[in-house]
Amino acid sequence: MRTPTAGVGATAVVVAAARAAENRRADRLFHDPLAERFLAEARKRTPVEAVEVVRHPMEHYFAIRTRYFDDVLRRAVAEGCRQVAVLGAGLDTRAFRLDWPIGTRVFEVDLPEVFAFKEPVVEAAGAEAACARTVVPTDLSADWEAALLRAGFDPGLPTAWLIEGVLCYLPGKADDAVLAGVTRLSAPGSRLAGEHVSHRVFTDPVARPMLDALESVGAPWLSGIDDIGTWLGASGWESATADLTDPAVHHGRITPVDRERIAAGPTRGWIFRAWN
Ligand SMILES: C[S@@+](CC[C@H](N)C(=O)[O-])C[C@H]1O[C@@H](n2cnc3c(N)ncnc32)[C@H](O)[C@@H]1O
User: Fold this and answer.
1) Probe target for ligand 1 pocket from 111, 197, 217, with the most ligand atoms within 8 Å of CB
2) How far, in Å, from the CA of 193 to the mean position of ligand 1?
C-alpha cells in the first residue's frame, strides 16, 4: 500500500488529521472515525511534520468547512439529487458517515495513489458505505469526464457535486476545464459546492508559512480566482458564498485570531454553493 504523504495526495492526509482532531471533541461537528484510521496508517509510514504545519492554523477552518459541505449535501439530496460526485475526494468519508436516502450513488474521484492508500484502510476498518459508492481513480487535469462516465455516472440525473479543497492544486487552466466538465455533465436541478482561493492569498504574509509547507511536500497551490460569482455565472451557475465569520456557519469555532485573519482585507478564499 502506498502512502500519499508527498505530492497533492499528502493534502488529503492533512484534512484527515484535522477531521480526526475534530472527531475527538465532545462537541464535534461531525463523526468521522475513519479519519483516525487514515491518520494512524499514514503515521506508520512517513513523518508528517509538514502536514502538521499546514493543519494547525487551518484546523478550525477544516472542521467548519467539512460541516458546511455536509449540510449542503444533505440539502441537495433532500431536494432530489440522488447522484453525488466528489471531485478530489481524498480521504473524504461522507459516503460512509452521512445518512443518504435510499437509491443514492456517490462517486469519488481522485488520483490512483490516493485510492491505493484509502481503500485498504476502509476495508481493514470493515466500514460499509451508507449508499452505493464508486471510486474513480483518475486525474482531474486529464479526461476525468470519460472516466466518470465509464464508471456509471448518469449525466441525465441531477447531481450534487462537491469540489472541496481541490481547485487551487490544479495547474494552469485546469480549474476552468473542471468547471466546464461539471457544467456539461450537470442535468437541470444539479448543485455544485466547493472552495477556491483568491489570488491575494499568494502574496499574503499570513498565508506564507502554510504555502511554504505545502510546497515542501510537493503540493503547491497553483491557481486562484478573484471573483467566484462571476466565474461560476459565466458557466450558467447561480451562486452564493459562505462567510465563515457568520455564527450560523462557524458553530462557535472561530477564534478571535481566526476572525481577524478572515476579516482582514479582501477575501483570501471562497466557499461557495451554486445551482443551475
Ligand atoms: C486538500 S485535499 C482535499 C480532499 C477532500 N476533498 C477533503 O476535503 O477531504 C486535495 C485533494 O485533491 C486531490 N487532487 C489534487 N489534484 C488532483 C488531480 N489533478 N486529479 C485528481 N485529484 C487531485 C488530491 O489528491 C487530494 O486528495
Assistant:
1) 111
2) 15
Task: Provide the CATH topology of domain 10-275.
Answer: Rossmann fold (3.40.50)
Q: How would residue 244 be classed by pLDDT, with cut points 50, 70 and 90?
A: confident
In this prediction, residues 68-84 reach a mean pLDDT of 97
- H helices of the chain, in order, are 10-23, 33-45, 49-78, 94-97, 112-125, 144-150, 174-184, 208-216, 228-233, 247-250, 256-263
Structure-block grid coordinates of residue 146: 470519460
More confident site: 30 or 204? 30
Where exactly are the structural domains of the chain? Answer: 10-275
Indicate which residue's Cα is closest to atom 11 of ligand 1. 88
Q: Could you read off the pLDDT of 108-118 as tens digits, one per residue? A: 999 999 999 99
